[in-house]
């Protein structure tokens, strides 16, 4: 049996990742599509579109802001967008 490994991924932009083995037979399970919905933002942090920010990060935003840190500094420290910090503080 001929086996060729196949792995194509575009995880950085949240596109589907295709993994699996191609066989010379009729194997329906030979190709698996795995979707990853994470990416890297411009600050270098990871994000998952449509998913809420973890509670730990939300608490850190509030603590930093309460201690007088500016929104931009919070954004840089936690590697999340300025708008995300603003949305959390507005609630």
From TrEMBL:
Q: Name one GO biological process term.
A: regulation of DNA-templated transcription
Keyword Iron attributed: no
Point to the regions of Polar residues compositional bias: 7-20
- A single GO molecular function term of this UniProt record: DNA binding
Q: Which Pfam families match?
A: PAX
Is this entry keyworded Transcription regulation? yes
Q: Which residues form a coiled coil?
A: none
Q: Which intervals of the chain are annotated as region Disordered?
A: 1-28
- Write out the annotated subcellular location: Nucleus
- List the GO cellular component terms: nucleus
UniProtKB keywords: Developmental protein, DNA-binding, Nucleus, Paired box, Transcription, Transcription regulation
Q: What coarse category fits the chief subcellular location reported for this protein? A: nucleus
Which InterPro entries does the entry link to? Homeodomain-like_sf (IPR009057), Paired_dom (IPR001523), PAX_fam (IPR043565), WH-like_DNA-bd_sf (IPR036388)
Family matches, as PANTHER family: PAIRED BOX PROTEIN PAX-6-RELATED-RELATED, PAIRED DOMAIN-CONTAINING PROTEIN
What protein does this entry describe?
Paired domain-containing protein
Q: What is the protein's species of origin?
A: Pristionchus pacificus
């Amino acid at each position: 049996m001929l086996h060729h490994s196949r792995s194509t991924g575009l995880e950085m932009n949240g596109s589907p990742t295709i993994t699996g083995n191609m066989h010379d037979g009729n194997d329906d399970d030979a190709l698996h599509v795995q979707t990853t919905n994470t990416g890297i933002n411009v600050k270098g942090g990871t994000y998952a579109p449509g998913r809420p920010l973890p509670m730990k990060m939300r608490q850190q935003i509030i603590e930093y802001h309460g201690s007088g840190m500016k929104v931009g500094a919070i954004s840089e420290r936690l590697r999340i967008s300025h708008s995300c910090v603003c949305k959390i503080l507005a609630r």
